[in-house]
Design goal:
The protein is an alpha/beta fold and about 240 residues long. The protein contains 6 helices and 10 strands, in the order E-E-E-H-E-E-H-E-H-H-H-E-H-E-E-E.
């Protein structure tokens, strides 16, 4: 069966200039991500994984090369088109939760549902991450893992085609991190959302359908995993 390509990059580069110094974050990345898969982008700090994720999500642009989301050429899209792309197709989950302290969990999620085309209700989204009993709690009343699950609920509430996660367990202890990974895997399987997680933790790669290892701004290895491990069976 032919896999549907969601993202593709060809000879993608990203150069940051700091005065007279050039930093080559990406050095010709060729990569494909497929519909419905759970993929881990694995690499050490400075390998280019966060830069790549930001370009896929339309938060940054490459210096040269091509990046496409289905039929949309992101490398040539204007800011208006990129804004529409981010709003309607992509959910983001970051290491730090970026919740608004003065809003409840329900209200933090509603920020997204009020502008999406076909959203879930905040209650539906929070139930999917196991927080139906915490709707009216403020971030300060929630644990770190619960705050991250609110952030995931906010990301999935607009029913995105793609969920991009930047070190989603980086600020959590291993036990709490496993709970968050279980939520991400469950969302991927129940909703069919293409999910990409970047991490430096090689253990997390065991739960992925595929792992793309990044090194020095390039994809150095692609590993298919026909038998992904459940998060609660990972050995941290």
């Amino acid at each position: 069966m032919t896999k549907e390509t969601v993202f593709s990059t060809r000879n993608l580069t990203r150069v940051f200039r700091m005065g007279e110094v050039e930093i080559h974050a990406l050095r010709g990345v060729d990569m494909d991500l497929y519909a419905g898969e759970f993929v881990v982008l694995l690499g050490a700090s400075g390998s280019g994984k966060s830069t790549l994720l930001n370009i896929l999500g339309g938060l940054d642009a490459g210096t040269s090369g091509e990046v496409r989301y289905r039929d949309l050429d992101l490398s040539r899209a204007n800011e208006r088109r990129l804004t529409e792309f981010r709003r309607h197709h992509v959910g983001f989950v970051f290491q730090f939760y970026n919740l608004i302290p003065s809003l409840t969990a329900r209200e933090n999620v509603a920020i997204v549902t009020e502008i999406a085309r076909d959203p879930m209700t905040p209650e539906e989204a929070l139930a999917l991450v196991g927080l139906e009993q915490r709707l009216d709690h403020f971030p300060a009343q929630l644990s770190g893992g619960e705050q991250q699950r609110v952030a995931i609920a906010r990301a999935i509430a607009k029913r995105p085609d793609v969920l991009l996660c930047d070190e989603p367990t980086g600020a959590l202890d291993s036990k709490t991190g496993i709970k968050v990974l279980q939520v991400l895997q469950d969302i991927n399987r129940r909703l069919g959302t293409t999910t990409a997680v970047i991490t430096h933790n090689a253990v997390i790669a065991e739960m992925a359908d595929r792992t793309l290892r990044l090194s020095d701004g390039r994809v150095s290895e692609v590993i298919d995993n026909p038998n992904p491990v459940a998060p609660d069976r990972l050995h941290w």
